[in-house]
């Protein structure tokens, strides 16, 4: 039975792009048709496992649709992370955001930016326990943030608490003049999860995400990629064994 797609899918096509090294480009007619077909497949997903498998396929270019995301493929900077992220998703860690580490670099806006390797996502209790076992004992030794949140346990916090300043842009002539571009760490509430995915996924899938454990893993040193990603790849390989 073919799922009935929500009306917003047609409108989303107008704003969805293909990301390349040089620039974003609009979808071709063939890509638009494939996008609709892939969205229908996603809309039939009802479990974290199904969402993880579909996310892995999207990362590897096997489908063009990713809920609540405006492009048919990852950013070019994610290319080297795809094997690790795809393996993690197939192992039960459904990633929703990730980025490689970048040493201080002069960016397109003339500001000096630096970036932490980081990833966040959803999983069930067993997978959360497995990630905790793999990462928590190594957090200090390897210099990692390891945040694992039980369902519905969004903490009361003051501004900035639990926030990981993942990407920072600074004036190269005035290092004190800086602002955050991306932040990882704090979990999303059930309401926030529903607001992001309602309409983009089926009700059972939204319910699965809203009731999932949330895990954020990040490096503590800007520009470094030789700690987090090898450990995540090792964990995923162990889960697949």
Fold topology:
Blueprint: H1 8-15, E1 17-19, E2 24-26, H2 29-43, H3 48-59, H4 82-90, E3 94-99, E4 102-106, E5 112-115, E6 118-123, H5 125-135, H6 139-142, E7 144-149, E8 164-171, E9 174-184, H7 190-197, H8 203-210, E10 213-219, H9 228-240
Antiparallel strand pairs: 1-2, 3-6, 4-5, 5-8, 6-10, 7-10, 8-9
Helix pairs in contact: 3-4, 4-9, 7-8
Give the SSE string. Answer: HEEHHHEEEEHHEEEHHEH
The radius of gyration computed from the alpha-carbon positions, rounded to a whole number of angstroms, is: 18 Å
Q: What summary fits the major beta sheet? A: 4 strands, antiparallel
* Strand order across the largest sheet: 3-6-10-7
Total domain count: 1
Number of helices: 9
The total beta strand count reads 10
Shape: globular
What is the straight-line distance between the termini? 34 Å
Helicity level: 25-40%
Which residues sit in consecutive blocks of at least 5 with pLDDT less than 50? none
What class would the helix/strand composition place it in? alpha+beta
Name the beta content range.
Answer: 15-25%
Provide structural commentary.
- The chain has 241 residues and is α+β, with helices and mostly antiparallel strands.
- It has one domain.
- It is 37% helix and 24% strand.
- It is built from nine helices and ten strands.
- It has helices spanning 8-15, 29-43, 48-59, 82-90, 125-135, 139-142, 190-197, 203-210, 228-240, and strands spanning 17-19, 24-26, 94-99, 102-106, 112-115, 118-123, 144-149, 164-171, 174-184, 213-219.
- The strands form three sheets. Strands 3-6-10-7 form a four-stranded antiparallel β-sheet. The chain has a four-stranded antiparallel β-sheet with strand order 4-5-8-9, with no helix packed on it. A two-stranded antiparallel sheet has the order 1-2.
- Strand 8 and strand 9 (174-184) form a beta hairpin.
- The two termini are 34 Å apart.
